[in-house]
Amino acid sequence: MSQGYVYVDFGAVRIQQYLTRTPELRGHRAASNSLARATADAAIQEVVEGLAEVNPEAGKADGVVSLRFPVEAGDEREGRVRRLQDLVFAHLRKALPGAEFHSIWGAGESYLAVHAHILQLKVRHGQVRHDLPPTAEFPLAAPCRMCHTDPAVGVEPLPDGSQMLCLDCSMRNVTRRQAVADDRSPEGRLLRGVGLAPAPDEFTDLAALGSMPSGRNHLATVAVDGNAFGVFFKALADEGSRDEELRTAKAEISSALSDATRAALETATLELPLTVEREQLCVVPHVVGGDDVLVSLPADQAWWFTLTFLEEFGRLVREATAEVLDKLNKLRAGQPGLPELEPPTASAGVVFAHVRHPLSLLAESAGQRLSEAKRVFGGRQASVQWLDLTADGPEAPAHLPVALSVLRSEGRGQTPAAVALSRLVKVPANHRARLTEALRGGGPLTAAAIADRVGHLDAIRPFLPPSPRHDQPPAARIGLGAALGLARWWPCA
Ligand SMILES: [Zn+2]
Q: Hey, what domains does the chain have and what are their CATH numbers?
């Protein structure tokens, strides 16, 4: 009789920080590519041949490796896990010299149960094996000229002359063509999926694709992550211990979720007005994990992209989970303390900034906005939070995150708030800036008085606090401050 499997997982630690530690897009691109290649199933299978197999019960994500081998009676598990870890760490280290990795393992009947009951606990308690980049053999060596982090080990040819680089930056010193040459890298995969001309080489060229009024020098960084997937998989694990059908559903659902992420990314990219106009890839993905995504794109395309992504992802996940959710909810009904499960969704953090801003800071800020959105909505609905570094500075935004359903209705439909925003966008940008100032200085009534004087009261009225005589219009839930912020990069209808 089967005694289950030993599961051994590997992941890159603080992966976004690592990928974005060099200043130029080419460096991030190359590192994303190396990560995706090194963690691809075929590459890993070759490394662990004879000791383990790539775990078919886990979903697909760049930078994550999951392995398993059958538990045999009297087996010396720990030694085998250790050998596996040594092999995989060495392989990853060669591909990504400056990254940090960790590994956890556990044994049980199914990955679903081991993940929910053993692996997550081990992570929480720090029972994890780490693999750090080697420290410098010569502490006084010159620092790398590209990342200024690690010691330089050799001279590499760069577009503007030869430089002393560290091992990691040498790996990153490849052209776009090389970095997206196959469809294992997130960008190469997206490019192949959408069948367009490749994205620009540099961030400045990417920003320059924006419309004339955008100034053509601003980019948006969008971080997306799934909501409540942990709760969903935990429920699946708990009920799955009693239900064979649910247990086997996990592997299918994990891969359906990574497929939903990739499909939503393709749809959101293809439907951008700029993509349609240029027939060129205008979105550069840096990370595409199971349910998380980090991309850069021209600022004036960000809302289109983000709302389409969240809507499409939600739709695909609803489809993929409908049957299982139905079954789970039937099993949970009547059990005290178990609320009805909703289909998981995703939320987004969006940061707008001048093209010169380093991606490492933008990725961090977008991640913070994403956390705010998730926190305010308790992970129960798709939502967005954003920050405009040029207009608002680096502090956390004063406005609350907004639910996707306020800005988009199903099937790309316009909500009342979206209609009101399209109208607000038509107010000249300098007037909107004045209203923002008035709002900060004196509050919504001061802003309303100024708007009235210059003839824009109708455009801001939907966002003013409701008067006791009227029902609250839906747009007021956003508030004037958030509306003026959204309008800055809201697409002109
Ligand atoms: Zn370096």
A: 5-131 (3.30.70), 180-406 (3.30.70.270), 423-489 (no CATH)
